[in-house]
From TrEMBL, chain A:
Chain intervals with Low complexity compositional bias: 290-302
Organism: Oriolus oriolus
Any Gene Ontology CC annotation: snRNA-activating protein complex
Domain of life: Eukaryota
Protein name from the UniProt record: SNPC1 protein
An example Gene Ontology biological process: snRNA transcription by RNA polymerase II
Automatic annotation (TrEMBL), chain B:
Upper taxonomic lineage: Eukaryota, Metazoa, Chordata, Craniata, Vertebrata
A molecular function (GO) term: bent DNA binding
Coiled coil ranges: none
Superkingdom in the source lineage: Eukaryota
Cellular compartments annotated: Nucleus
Keywords of this entry: DNA-binding, Nucleus, Transcription, Transcription regulation
General function of this protein: Part of the SNAPc complex required for the transcription of both RNA polymerase II and III small-nuclear RNA genes. Binds to the proximal sequence element (PSE), a non-TATA-box basal promoter element common to these 2 types of genes. Recruits TBP and BRF2 to the U6 snRNA TATA box.
Any single Gene Ontology cellular-component annotation: snRNA-activating protein complex
Protein family: Belongs to the SNAPC3/SRD2 family.
Protein name from the UniProt record: snRNA-activating protein complex subunit 3
Length: 356, 307
């Protein structure tokens, strides 16, 4: 279905404001809602058929924010938004919210989380929706329609709404840590059993650090804190416009994220500046410095350089990792530039770039 | 009390978009509405829109008179798109289809009976000499076989003794050489309900009848039955969307739908030519019913007959 123009921006703006408010209370959301008079989103003279279609699309859009991978606060905001939209709609009988079967366990888990963390207002809202029979339980989340699209719209997730991808945490979960602790204890006990002195393992058997599980936990906690701080800084940097603070924070961010990137860029630059002059016979095929930064492209092969310039805006972390990779591969495989091999070198260079 | 926070405090006309709206959606919509007001003289629902809306919503909330016909909770509701076989060139890009709602506990034969295709009503034979004997046997009565194809299994209609296994040809063909299709089976349609099938959403399946009239069937949605749906079992399979086909009118009076088509007609200006019943008899037969001129006449069923 083609999207309702402007609706995505409005919803994201409302959810963004809710996220800024840093609370999950319904009163706060209701204030924001009333400020914008969001219920008017269904107004505008239209006949019943069009109104049905519009409401369906609106609910479908809002429902997307209700599911993972969005962060907890956004999901609560989406729940409130769905409640508001469902009640404010003008269709009779009301259009329903589609929930796919595969998402249902996650939503139940979410409801359990709400109850555990005593966000009773959100749980109450959810219960009200259930009682009002606002949900359609479907097999697939989106209703299939057959319209040839001119271009496939990429459904991108707003970066700030997502939970910071916590890969470290998902790997080292509490369960994993607990199990590690158990195994560690067991191991120590086994060592004691087989050694001469029953209360202590033999000195010869001490091959691992005794407190490595505790260290692991500390490191992951540190990482998590660091990530949260960065997210906060990043978010604050985006919001505050043209203030002293912003500059400072931005430079702080920059210094953190791109210190390494700058160092690597410097190394790269140094290694590439050494471009040997090709002999006079090959004057027309001078080796030219191709910069790896996106945008600038020179050199013989426009198609090849286009590939590099098409790299999308990297997020901070992604950017530095990519740069790291580049530098590493180039450093290792840096061929000697000679006259005969000048073509080869370019070919192999571009091949490496393509491989990435 | 929570509800009051949501709804408007004062009486507002939902047709009017407020002037100072902060929502982007409304600003865009306002511009669209203004443009529409400038260009459209009469802004009213046309026939097609009324038909579409009516079909979509006519059955919502219906309850049966007989309580045994009430649909229970936990019943599945499938939405099927049944495509017409392409007849017109202009339909090549966007094939017209009808949308049918079917209950999970209904038999495949019920769906089969509900599909109305114009090829079922065709009458074979040339009737220029005996126009009064024309509508005797429609194809639906003569050729009763049909099958569905879902996920490698052919469900053949075997309710009547005349029904033949149309899928046998296909199965023999696929087994004759190693064509890469795993074993295709053939079973009886009347033994199965939709709940027994394993289906893919969005994947094209086939319904074939009359030997060579093939319809593609695509399942667009499966969901649980809801309180606001139509809960009368007798109304299912329920047609909620149908493509409107323009009917061909009689060449003479341009008013009535064509019922006859003639070929090689010396009295007609074009070949083939369509006539309604009255004009056909008036032109081609004299008062006694004798045939005038040379022509071949066939009874014609217009695809738009189901409008």
């Amino acid at each position: 279905m083609s999207a309702v123009p402007g609706l995505k921006e409005d919803c994201e703006e409302l959810l963004g404001a809710f996220q800024q408010a840093d609370t999950v209370r319904f009163e706060r959301f209701a204030e924001l809602w009333r400020e914008r008079r969001f219920y008017t989103v269904f107004h505008g003279r239209m006949r019943a058929l069009e109104r049905n279609k519009l409401t369906k699309k609106t609910l479908e859009l809002a429902q997307q924010y209700f599911l993972p991978p969005y962060s907890f606060q956004i999901r609560v905001g989406a729940l409130y938004l769905l409640y508001g939209l469902y009640n404010a709609q003008l269709c009779q009988p009301k259009q329903k919210i589609r929930i796919a079967l595969k998402d249902w366990p996650e939503i139940q888990k979410f409801q359990q989380d709400l109850l555990d963390s005593q966000h009773y207002d959100a749980a109450y809202i959810f219960r009200r929706l259930r009682l009002a029979r606002a949900f359609h339980f479907t097999a697939m989340p989106k209703l299939l329609t057959y319209r040839t699209k001119k271009k496939i719209e990429e459904n991108y997730f707003k970066e700030e709404f997502k939970d910071p991808s916590n890969r470290v945490n998902s790997l080292i979960t509490n369960d994993v840590l607990e199990e590690l602790m158990n195994i560690h204890d067991h191991y120590q006990k086994m060592k004691c059993v087989i050694s001469a002195d029953k209360s202590q393992p033999d000195k010869a058997l001490s091959l691992i650090k005794d407190d490595f599980v505790v260290n692991l936990k500390d490191i992951t906690l540190e990482h998590q804190e660091w990530q949260q701080n960065r997210m906060k800084l990043f978010r604050n940097a985006k919001v505050t416009d043209g203030t002293e603070n912003k500059k400072k924070e931005e430079t702080l961010l920059e210094s953190e994220g791109s210190e390494r990137a700058n160092a690597l860029a410097r190394i790269k630059y140094r290694s590439y500046s050494a471009v040997v002059e090709v002999s006079k016979s090959r004057r027309h095929r001078q080796v030219q410095l191709e910069s790896s930064e996106s945008g600038s492209s020179c050199g013989k092969s426009p198609s090849r350089s286009k590939k590099t310039s098409r790299r999308p805006q990297p997020a901070w972390r992604r950017g530095e990792m990519q740069v790291a990779e580049e530098a590493v591969t180039r450093h290792i495989g840096m061929p000697i530039i000679t006259e005969e091999n000048s073509d080869e070198e370019e070919v192999s260079l571009s091949k490496r770039r393509r491989r990435r | 009390s929570i509800d009051m926070l949501m709804s408007s405090e004062k009486e507002e006309d939902p047709d009017v978009i407020p002037e100072d709206s902060s929502l982007l959606t409304l600003r865009i919509r306002k511009k669209d509405l203004e443009r529409r007001e400038e260009t459209i003289i009469v802004d009213r629902a046309c026939r097609q829109e009324t038909l579409t809306y009516e079909m979509e919503s006519h059955a919502t909330g219906k309850r049966p008179d007989n309580p045994t016909d009430l649909i229970e909770e936990g019943e599945l509701l499938l939405t099927l798109n049944i495509f017409y076989p392409v007849i017109f060139q202009k339909h090549k890009d966007h094939k017209p289809y009808q949308t049918v709602l079917v209950l999970g506990s209904q038999k495949l034969t019920e769906l089969r009976d509900s599909i109305s295709c114009v090829s079922d009503l065709q009458i074979g034979g040339e009737f220029s000499s005996q126009p009064d004997q024309a509508p005797e046997h429609i194809s639906k009565d003569l050729y009763k076989s049909a099958f569905f194809y879902f996920e490698g299994i052919f469900y053949n209609d075997k309710r009547y003794p005349e029904c033949r296994d149309l899928s046998r040809t296909i199965i023999e063909w696929s087994e004759s050489h190693d064509r890469g299709y795993e074993n295709l089976q053939s079973v009886k349609m009347e033994d199965y309900v939709f709940n027994d099938l394993s289906l893919k959403i969005g994947f094209p399946y086939l319904y074939c009848h009359q030997g060579n009239c093939e319809h593609i069937i695509i399942i667009t949605d499966i969901r649980l039955i809801h309180h606001d749906d139509c809960l009368d079992r007798n109304l299912y399979p329920l047609l909620i969307k149908k493509h409107w086909l323009c009917t061909r009118k009689c060449f003479v009076c341009k008013m009535y739908t064509a019922r006859w088509v003639t070929n090689r007609d010396s009295l007609a200006p074009q070949d083939p030519c369509f006539f309604c019943d009255v004009c056909f008899r008036m032109l081609h037969y004299d008062a006694e019913g004798n045939k005038l001129g040379e022509f071949l006449a066939y009874p014609y069923v217009d695809p738009g007959i189901f409008n």
